[in-house]
Amino acid sequence: MEKNKPLLEIKNLHAKIGDKEIIKGLNLTVNPGEVHAIMGPNGTGKSTLANVITGKDGYEITDGEILYKGKNITDLDPEERALEGIFLGFQYPVEIPGVSMTNFMKAAVDAQRKYKGLDPIKPGEFLKMYREKQQLVNMSDKMKNRSVNEGFSGGEKKKNEIFQMAMLEPDLAILDETDSGLDIDALKAVADGVNKLRNKDNAFIVITHYQRLLDHIVPDIVHVMYDGKIVKTGDKNLAKELEEKGYAWIEEEYQKSKNAGNE
Amino acid sequence: MPAMNKLYENIIRFFEKDFSEKIKNEPEFIQKIRLENFEKFKNKGFPTLKDEKWRKTNLNKFTNQYFHPLLHNIVKKNSTDVCIVPDLQTVNIQLINGHFAGEEKLNVLENGIIYGSIQSAFEKYKDLISRYFDKLSKNSTNPMDWLNAALFTDGFFIYVPKNVKEINFQISQQLDAPVDALINSRNLIVLENDAQINLIQCDDSNEHRSHFATFNTEIFVGENAELNWYKYQNINNISAMFSNTFAEVKENGKLYTNFYQLNGKLLRNEQFTEIAGKDVAVDHYGLYLVDKTQQFDNVIFVSHASEGSYSNQKFKGILDDSAKGFFNGQILVKKDAQQTNAYQKNDNILLTDKAKISSQPFLEIYADDVSCSHGSTTGQIDDEALFYIRQRGISKRDAQLLQLYAFAGEVIDAVKIPELIEPTKDLVKKRLNGELDVCEDCILQCANK
Asked: Cβ B392–A104 below 8 Å, yes or no?
């Protein structure tokens, strides 16, 4: 089978915040149609990776490149990357008091349409789309008049991320610990939403601590991140192994190989 | 010793030489008020940085300048149809350089409402006016009030008889002098018991002349009466305007103000509200959008002298570039004002390191059974929220505007006249977008163009 052109190619990426290097030579290739899981203990750079790919301020890329659809995107603004089809499901969705969900989504959809040279979406069409996507993640209709994330429960906030993803139909979605703090029903709703949106042209990077979410969103490839790098890659069984054995053995293996490299 | 400066000396000379002649035909009680206030002003001069409420407001740029005192209205406009809010039936009042500009100086409507030039009303409604005029402002310690009382040339007068309700007034106040001008205007609004009116005011100016304007208004809200006042201020960036309002609200009365400070070099609004009866409701809302080297001030004093009343002060500001703002809000609850509910909040966003806000909330309570709160916040645009919004494909500029507009929402959402909601939103959006220019007509009208 002929392989598609990669959607995302990260080559030898080094990134730091202030003086602290967080990403230390990371390589990752994601092809259309794939779901990747990135696992690993806390503080190994998973969220930083998500922020660097999406262009958040405050990170300095000191080496390497991020190719998206074959183009280096490291100089693009966050909104340009978003308009190119990269979506981040936030670990901590931000509350924006005074901005209603519908206004926010209308602005986002229209920004995307403008980028594609289209006129703003018609109100009727927008509401129809809004309703459909709400149903996809089983989100209550009363949320739409509320301010973005304001007063939402943890589960509602995460569902809201998936809802926004459904509205914007990205080519590459990065879900940063979307499972954290979710009860099993919310987890299923989130996973269900993702599974419905999966297709041969888009790709997902699911960042998670736990195997739990991966029972519902079955990944094609599982990576383990440690000390700012991807130190192990496998199939979905790797996630199960991690669930059983924890991360300590990864750490040991990594230290061993590091020492061996130094000798 | 008063602080010497060009404007002060110019005013003293003008009053003593020319003006005292001109006012000799006025009723005696008015002359007396003028002279008393002139003496006070002469002794004290303009406020300086040493005065408590002026520590952040430097008048030097203006007081070292020459302003021509305007005795008469120089510019004539034909139309009084200027301050148009579409679909709203209104009585229109136009003030040009502080002078009532209508053909008829005094008008009596079928329902008994009297409105027109206050100068003309001094003669025709002397008894009525003398019952109210300067009753609330006479104890002011603010030199700007003394200046206004001494030197005002005209202003508007509105009298609403008992039971007359649901009348909308549009007041278009234009600073349109052909020279740099000193303008002092004085207004009086009297609502008898059970009366209710809305005022929609815009303050505008021409582009090229510097104006130094004081605009004082006394308001009497009778029992069970209600006044709602919306004001949009958009004057050029070389002019200063001091709008001081004194209000008294009687039992069951309601006073509501919702003011937008949009443009001007220096805009200062002072509000003194006396709650003089039971079960009164007072709301003072304000939004100030300040940039470049502009400075907008708000000084609010609400005094609860009677029990069971409610007051709420809500002022929000966004300051960009090297802009400055000053907020001084005070709630006074006197001994007998039990069961008072009084709130005050001032929130600010500073967009740059150079923008400055000085916020001083005060609460003074002498009754024991009250519910009061006050507070002030100053912050920046939330970077996390900015990134969140941009991550959805919305440009940095739009993401910022979305947040700023949301911040302003609390004031805009308080607009109660349906026809006024969209124009208000438009104005705020345009201002935040840097698209609001000087408008020679009413800004509400210009913004629709």
From this structure: yes
Q: Are residues B123 and B196 in the same domain?
A: yes
Asked casually if ipTM beats, i.e. exceeds, 0.85, the reply is yes
DSSP SS3 for A257: helix
Number of structural domains (chain B) is: 2
Contacts of B402 in chain A (CB under 8 A): 96, 99, 103-104, 107
Edge-to-edge strands, sheet with A20-30 = A20-30, A8-17, A60-68, A71-72
Query: Is pLDDT larger for residue B312 or for residue A137?
Result: B312
Neighbour count for residue B308 (Cβ, 10 Å): 17
Q: CA-CA distances (angstroms) from residue B306 to B280, B302, B309, B311, B331?
A: 9, 12, 7, 12, 13
Q: Going from the N-terminus, what domains does chain A have, and what CATH number goes with each?
A: 8-262 (3.40.50.300)
Q: How far is A262 from chain B (nearest CA, A)?
A: 40
Subunit contact B392:A111, Cβ cutoff 8 A: yes
Q: Residues of A with CB below 8 A from B409's CB?
A: 98
| CA gap B274, A147 in Å, rounded | 37
- Closest CB from A57, A82, A95 relative to B392: A82
Q: What is the pLDDT of residues B362-408, one digit of tens each?
A: 999 999 999 999 999 999 999 999 999 999 999 999 999 999 999 99
Residues B50 and B166 occupy one common structural domain: yes
Mean per-residue pLDDT, B149-158 = 96
